[in-house]
UniProtKB/TrEMBL annotation:
Lineage of the species this protein comes from: Bacteria, Pseudomonadati, Myxococcota, Polyangia, Polyangiales
Recorded family membership: Belongs to the class-I aminoacyl-tRNA synthetase family.
Chain span(s) of sequence motif 'KMSKS' region: 193-197
InterPro entries: aa-tRNA-synth_Ic (IPR002305), Rossmann-like_a/b/a_fold (IPR014729), Trp-tRNA-ligase (IPR002306), Trp-tRNA-ligase_bac-type (IPR024109), Trp-tRNA_synthetase (IPR050203)
Organism field: Polyangium jinanense
Primary localization: cytoplasm
Entry GO CC: cytosol
Name of the protein in question: Tryptophan--tRNA ligase
Gene symbol of the encoding locus: trpS
Transmembrane segments: none
Record's keyword terms, sorted: Aminoacyl-tRNA synthetase, ATP-binding, Cytoplasm, Ligase, Nucleotide-binding, Protein biosynthesis
Highest taxon, organism lineage: Bacteria
Positions of ATP binding: Q9, P10, S11, G17, N18, G145, A146, D147, I184, K193, M194, S195, K196, S197
C-alpha cells in the first residue's frame, strides 16, 4: 500500500478548518493507504506553551483523531516526540536546506509578524522538521489544507536534493488538497483563514464546541450588506465560506449548495450550515468522551503507534546516516 503521512499541531483547539482541510480526508483515505498520523508536539513548541496544557492537549488531539474517525487498528497514530528520529533527520535535512528557501516561507513571515517577541530559530526551521516527518516514512501522499502547499514543495525539493547528491533514498511526496474546503475562512474575518489558535474564538468552530456555541457562532458570522446567496469569493467571502463549509460536510459541489439556497435569506443559510456542522460534530463529541474515559486504552494506542513508527523511522534514518558518511554505532 502507498504511504500517507500527515499531522496537526496541538495548539489552540482542533478546529473545523483542520477537520475539513485535513482530518476528514485522512478518514476517507485511510483504508486505501498505509497511514501515519502525527500529533506534531515538537512543532507546537515554536510558540510558547504552558507545559500542563500542552500535555493534555496532545492526548486530547489524539483522542479527537479517533473520535473523528481515524481507526487506530488501521492507521498509526503517533505523538511526534515519541519518535526521536524525526528530530534527528531534521538536523541532517537542515544542513541541506538554504536560509534563502526558509526565508521565503510565508508561514514564517506571518508567524514572525504575529509573535514578534518570540521569533525563535525553531519557527524558522519548522518546515525542515515537517520535511523530516514526511520523508522519514517514505510517504507518497500528504493530505493537507492549501496553507501547507509551500512547505510541501520544500519537502519535495529537499528530498530530490538528497537523492541527487547521494543516491535514490527518499520518495518524493505528492500533496493531496481537497477540492472543496482546502481553505476554510475565519467566521468574523472571512478574508483570513480559520485558525485553531485565533485569539477570537468566534472566528473558529472547535470540533468540541457544544451545539449551542456552534449555532451562536454561525448566527454571528460576518456576511455582507447584500441579500443574495451566491458563491463569489471575491465579493462575498463570508457567504462563500458558509457555502463551502456546507458543501464540504455534505460532500456536494459548492454550486449545488448555492443553488439549494437560491432565493433564501442569510438567516436560513446560517442556521442550515449550523445544523450540518452540529450533525457532523455531535457524534464525534460523544465518541471523544468515550475515548477520553479510557485513558489507559488511549495510551496503549499511542505506545503501539510509537513503537511501529520508531522501527519504520529508524529504517530510513540508518540508511541516511550511512549514505552521508556517518560511522554506524556498534
Ligand atoms: P496545522 O496544525 O496548522 O493544521 C493542520 C491541518 O489543517 C489544515 N488547515 C486548514 N485546512 C483548511 N482550512 C483551514 N482554515 C485550515 N487551517 C488548517 C492544514 O493545512 C493542515 O493540513 N505544519 C503543519 C503540521 C505538520 C504537518 C507535518 C502536516 C507538521 N508536520 C507533516 C503534514 C505533514 C501545520 O502547522 O498544520
Amino acid at each position: 500500500k502507498p504511504v500517507i503521512l500527515s499531522g496537526i499541531q496541538p495548539s489552540g483547539q482542533l478546529a473545523l478548518g483542520n477537520y475539513v482541510g485535513a482530518l476528514k480526508n485522512w478518514v476517507e483515505l485511510q483504508h486505501q493507504y498505509d497511514c501515519v498520523f502525527l500529533v506534531v508536539d515538537l512543532h507546537a513548541l515554536t510558540v510558547k506553551q504552558v507545559p500542563a496544557e500542552l500535555r493534555n492537549r496532545c492526548l486530547s488531539f489524539a483522542a479527537q483523531y479517533i473520535a473523528c474517525g481515524i481507526d487506530p487498528e488501521a492507521s498509526t497514530i503517533v505523538l511526534q516526540s515519541h519518535v526521536p528520529q524525526h528530530a534527528e533527520l531534521a538536523w541532517v535535512l537542515g544542513t541541506m536546506t538554504y536560509m534563502g528557501e526558509l526565508s521565503r516561507m510565508t508561514q514564517f513571515k506571518d508567524k514572525s509578524a504575529r509573535h514578534e517577541d518570540n521569533i525563535n530559530s525553531g519557527l524558522f526551521t519548522y518546515p525542515v522538521l515537517m520535511a523530516a516527518d514526511i520523508l522519514i516514512y517514505q510517504a507518497n501522499l500528504v493530505p493537507v489544507g492549501a496553507d501547507q502547499k509551500q512547505h510541501l514543495e520544500l519537502a519535495r525539493d529537499v528530498a530530490q536534493r538528497f537523492n541527487q547528491r547521494y543516491s535514490e533514498t527518499f520518495v518524493t511526496p505528492d500533496i493531496f488538497v481537497p477540492k472543496v474546503g482546502a481553505r476554510i475562512m475565519a467566521l468574523q474575518e472571512p478574508t483570513k483563514k480559520m485558525s485553531k489558535s485565533d485569539p477570537n474564538p468566534d472566528n473558529y468552530i472547535a470540533v468540541l464546541d457544544t451545539p449551542d456555541v456552534i449555532r451562536r457562532k454561525f448566527k454571528r458570522a460576518v456576511t455582507d450588506s447584500e441579500t443574495e446567496i451566491r458563491y463569489d469569493v471575491e465579493n462575498k467571502p463570508g457567504v462563500s465560506n458558509l457555502l463551502t463549509i456546507h458543501a464540504a460536510l455534505t460532500n456536494q459541489p459548492v454550486e449545488a449548495v448555492a443553488a439549494h439556497f437560491a432565493g433564501k435569506g442569510y438567516g436560513d443559510l446560517k442556521s442550515e450550515v449550523a445544523d450540518v456542522v452540529v450533525a457532523t460534530l455531535e457524534p464525534f463529541q460523544k465518541r471523544y468522551q468515550e475515548v477520553m474515559a479510557d485513558k489507559a486504552g488511549l495510551e496503549q494506542i499511542l505506545a503501539r503507534g510509537a513503537e511501529k513508527a520508531r522501527a519504520r523511522a529508524w529504517k530510513t534514518l540508518s540508511k541516511v546516516y550511512k549514505k552521508i558518511g556517518l560511522v554506524p554505532a556498534a
